[in-house]
Amino acid sequence: MNAPVLVINCGSSSIKYALIDSDPQAPRLAGLAERLGSRDARLKGKNSAGESFTQPLPNADHAEALIAILKRLENRVPAAIGHRIVHGGEHFTQAALIDDSVIATIESIAALAPLHNPAHLAGIAATQKVFPGLPQVAVFDTAFHQTLPPRAYRYALPEALYTEHRIRRYGFHGTSHAYVSKRAGELSQRGNGGWLTAHLGNGCSTSAIWNNQSQDTSMGLTPLEGLVMGTRSGDVDPGLHAHLHRQLGWSLDEIDDVLNKQSGLLGLSGLTNDMREVEEQALSGHKGSKLALDVFCYRIAKSLAALSCALPTLDGVIFTGGIGENSPIVRREVIALLPHFGFNMDEAANEATIRGKEGKLDHTGHSGPEVWVIPTDEEGRIAMETRHCVETH
Q1: What are residue 96's DSSP bridge partners?
Q2: What is the mean pLDDT of the chain?
Q3: I need a labelling partner for 291 at 20 to 30 A (CA). Which of 45, 64, 161, 316 fits?
Q4: In the chain, where does DSSP find H-type helix?
């Protein structure tokens, strides 16, 4: 299949898209339709020449936005459409060609991702309307982590909560962890061995990957578990919910809102969820920002150390995501907290590796576990899985 794949990531009021050619060097047409359903709806992106554009789409819905996107594809007709789907539960271990049964299954597990799966379903319905003749593929964030063993995915809860309600750890950011670990196997002489991956952005997660298979990961039933994130708390005492309800009278919705939208870097710093601003303020002496940076890095290091238990051997750690790729400070602080792993990071290489560069950050001749920065390409991974799914069917 040589024609391009259109990758779609639908939110409740947005559509992120990328038209990806089979040639990885070919320019991508990419953009974002945002604020859908409002007077301020608009489409913005770049054309094949790299020129930016913004197009007003007042009151446009998902289908109308897709029609506008179609006109921006410069007469390049996609062969298939790949949809990013956040939650596939235990039903999907790989990408799936979308049909009525796949749609029904995504609907049946919407309670596991109430903010995401319904929006993805709306996107599927809209793309089927606009592109009725094209094969459409669902690529699941959770599928890559379906190789976790029971000791990693089970919570220590009554059996019925798992067998009847499927309450377990699922993990997320699967396309990113899959892409960077595979890329490390191509770049490093160590190949596809044991890698710890740290996807760090506004959402953050870590994974332990052995021979391109996920063995454990930091996120769980929901994306709230695990690391400190932009506005999410990450791990807290499970008794916190009951404590806040009893002592402050907060409802479950209020508690959920605080943990997901008011915590993380924003909650600790009291200023922002943007790591660039946190670092700037921390260096200027702002105590809240310094605390936010310290907690953020400590929790990453703590998670990586714990996840190393899942690997027979450790070949290295990979930083990716907006923060992982662009923050030498975070990388330095995390590696400094793991002296017993034998990393030997070259600080000059660390400072130089930003803005989309991939590279190995070790001193020359270092023989211990490696440190890599590898920019993630979730859209590219989704396109690859979409091609494979269509070709095998």
Answers
A1: 138
A2: 94
A3: 316
A4: 62-71, 100-108, 117-130, 150-153, 159-163, 174-187, 240-248, 252-261, 264-269, 275-283, 287-307, 321-326, 328-336, 347-352, 378-392
What 3-state DSSP class applies to 181? helix
Closest by CA to 93, choosing from 156, 141, 60, is 141
Token pair 């939208």 is found at 261
Place of tokens 């400072």: 351
Residue 288 to residue 282: CA distance in whole angstroms: 8
> Could you tell me if 230 and 203 are in contact, meaning their C-beta atoms sit under 8 angstroms apart?
yes
Bridge partners, 146 (sequence order): none
DSSP 345: B
347 three-state secondary structure: helix
Name the pairing type of β-strands 194-200 and 316-320. Answer: parallel
Lowest mean pLDDT among 24-28, 192-196, 252-256: 24-28
Question: pLDDT digits over 99-131, tens only?
Answer: 999 999 999 988 888 878 888 998 899 899 888
CB-neighbour burial class of residue 93 (10 A; exposed 0-12, middle 13-18, buried 19+): middle
| Catalytically active residues, by annotation | 141
Q: Which domains occur in the chain, in start order?
A: 5-140 (3.30.420.40), 189-378 (3.30.420.40)
In this predicted model, what pLDDT tens digit does every residue of 320-371 receive, in sequence order? 999 999 999 999 999 999 999 999 999 999 999 887 789 999 999 899 999 9
Give dist(CA 165, CA 25) in Å, integer: 45
Sheet bearing 80-85, strands edge to edge: 52-56, 42-46, 29-34, 15-20, 5-10, 80-85, 136-140, 96-97
For residue 213, how many other CB atoms are within 10 A of its CB? 15
The contacts of residue 381 (CB under 8 Å, 6+ apart) are 139, 175, 176, 178, 179
Positive or negative, the CA dihedral 279, 285, 290, 292 is: negative
The candidate with the shortest Cα–Cα distance to 138, out of 154, 158, 165, 117, is: 117
